[in-house]
Backbone:
């Protein structure tokens, strides 16, 4: 398989290109007059750096919304990468006990699950992760691309170091996994539901700055109302008013889906609203 087949892309708005990996994980390439920025890097299956360089000749800032490997593993193809310190620690944990191979195994599993035909994927085309240093991101950091600038908005919840990226001049925000029709807030690296709600309230105070919401997985885009709906869902969970449907994760039923999900779709809510979370009781 050549690199073109591991990715495809769509130009859907002015300077924004959406790159789709084989597991349908999404990255965004924002192209300004002087520089470009790649927000998230996919699962490291296929060389995302070469793919991006086929789309732009500009120098590229590489920014990760969070550390999960389906978004961060492609970053091992780049020499300079931005990530929050909280999530850099999360990736570092993978290497503390020489778990480099385990991470590669997870990527291979991801590739198999995504493609279901490992024969089509050359193991050589899967990145080999290594212990590395990141450039650290903080709330309010701005990346100037010339005519376009990106602002980093921290949003602890899905992970403690998750960020959203506001593309100011294009009135667009990348929510990533931080606010999704079925946001996972039940992970070991997640915050409490109360802290997640506080993060979303902070983002809501910037709601006048954007019209368009981009996600890191299907359904790819969301109405901006998703933010308010998830704030309400968090409040229902905190007040004990959620549907509390047991959710199996890693063989355990210790997590719950807050609002009933459409069985056929598997992600979207049964009642037609668009915000939902998976949480743990503690
Ligand atoms: Zn994630």
Residues:
């Amino acid at each position: 398989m050549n690199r073109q087949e591991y990715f495809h892309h769509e130009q859907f708005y002015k300077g924004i290109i959406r790159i789709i990996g084989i597991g349908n994980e999404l990255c965004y390439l924002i192209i300004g007059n002087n520089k470009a920025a790649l927000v998230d890097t996919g699962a490291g299956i296929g060389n995302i750096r070469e793919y991006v360089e086929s789309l732009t000749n500009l120098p590229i800032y590489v920014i990760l919304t969070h550390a999960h490997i389906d978004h961060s593993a492609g970053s091992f193809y780049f020499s300079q990468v931005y990530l929050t310190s909280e999530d850099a620690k999360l990736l570092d944990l993978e290497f503390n006990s020489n778990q480099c191979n385990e991470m590669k195994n997870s990527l291979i599993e991801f590739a198999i699950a995504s493609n279901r035909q490992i024969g089509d994927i050359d193991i050589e085309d899967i990145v080999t992760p290594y212990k590395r240093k990141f450039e650290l991101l903080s709330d309010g950091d701005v990346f100037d691309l010339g005519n376009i600038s990106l602002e980093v908005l921290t949003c602890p919840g899905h992970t403690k170091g998750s960020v959203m990226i506001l593309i100011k001049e294009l009135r667009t925000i990348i929510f990533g996994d931080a606010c999704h029709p079925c946001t996972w807030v039940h992970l070991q690296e997640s915050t409490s539901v109360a802290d997640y709600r506080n993060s979303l309230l902070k983002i809501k105070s910037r709601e006048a700055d954007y019209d368009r919401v981009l996600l890191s997985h299907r359904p790819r885009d969301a109405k901006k109302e998703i933010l308010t709906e998830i704030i309400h869902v968090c409040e229902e969970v905190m007040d004990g008013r959620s549907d509390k449907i047991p959710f199996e994760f890693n063989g355990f039923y210790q997590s719950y889906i807050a609002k009933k999900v459409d069985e056929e779709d598997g992600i979207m809510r049964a009642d037609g609203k668009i915000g939902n979370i998976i949480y743990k009781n503690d």
